[in-house]
Design brief:
With 388 residues, the chain is of the alpha/beta class. It is built from 13 helices and 17 strands. The chain folds into two domains: 116 residues, Aspartate Aminotransferase, domain 1 (Alpha-Beta Complex), CATH 3.90.1150.10; 240 residues, 3-Layer(aba) Sandwich (Aspartate Aminotransferase, domain 2). Helices cover 38% and strands 19% of the residues. A hairpin with a 4-residue loop joins strand 2 and strand 3.
Amino acid sequence: MMPTYSPPELLPVRGEGSYLYDEEGNKYLDFMAGIAVNSFGHCHPYLIETLTKQANELWHTSNVFRIGNGERLAERLVEHSFADHVFFANSGAEAVECAFKAARKYHHSNGASERMRIISLKGAFHGRTISTVAACKVPAHCDGFFEGDLGFDQVEYGDMEALQAAVTDKTAAIIMEPVQGEGGIRPATQDYMQAIRDLCDATGTLLIHDSVQCGFGRTGKLFTYENYDIAPDIMTLAKGLGGGFPVGACLTNKKVGDAMIFGTHGSTFGGNPMATAVANAVMDLMHADGFLDSVVERGQYLQDGLQKLIEQYPTVLESTTGLGLMIGLKCKVENTKLLLGARAKGLLLAKGGNNMVRMLPPLNISTAEADEALQKVADVCEELLAAA
């Protein structure tokens, strides 16, 4: 394998619900969920049943032919969102690539071919393809891969004056995560979200919501923009959409989607029968009575517990933030110390920017599992305090 990752020695071999087991039989409470992917934990019976049934019927045909599962999923996504059109991909980065192309093609089709530039916000993460790393401008991700800016500008997160100044007659779109993930869990404020929408409306700029990590139930709403009641023109989904099976989607309103005519984009595997069968099953589970409300409740329960730990260990922990079950815990010690300490105690957390660790558990965790996680964090804080 290319040395592009640096994994620990831990080798997971089995998963069940909210737990992972390694090759030595050690048990871990998984509050990474594959980086906000395993919406219903590991080996959910309904998802296994759906995948097994589809595997016995049809795996792949390509988009040369109609795909029934994909058509059904697209209809459901449109029914429950702002969107009129859906394009299926295999990952979040591919969905964002489609969003970039759709935004530029929309302006080109409407006689403004000069509107090619896209503005991102500092701290964002949109993927690891050439254009997505160009959009995010993280030097370590860009170095050695291209010259120039590839048509991307960037402004400081939260600075509306800078954003207003950056929009010109060559700007096609603004892309933002309603809740930044990799950059440290940062939910946009209502005022900030509204100001960006207003700016886009006033200038004819398209608004792209990258909801790959924060979307599909993670924040207690099916789509993150529903927390703000402010719809984008384009939205990207992946991660939790497939509950562990690779699938991505780019959703657009009618004016944008109508510009993506025959031949403008494509994918061999995108929206294949297996992926869209599982995504439909995830959609079924999301729409169970009271489920999304329970995500909000569990998220608040965890944040309340974390706040008590912050008060108890003020030299170790600083603050908590988030929406639903997308939670950040900012540390006063180096976040890696908390991350590794938790792993040693059987709790898997994700690292984030701004010296945070991220809690991204399955959306169907129990209060008992939340309590277990909180106790493990407390135990690590005790050790760090004693070692200080």
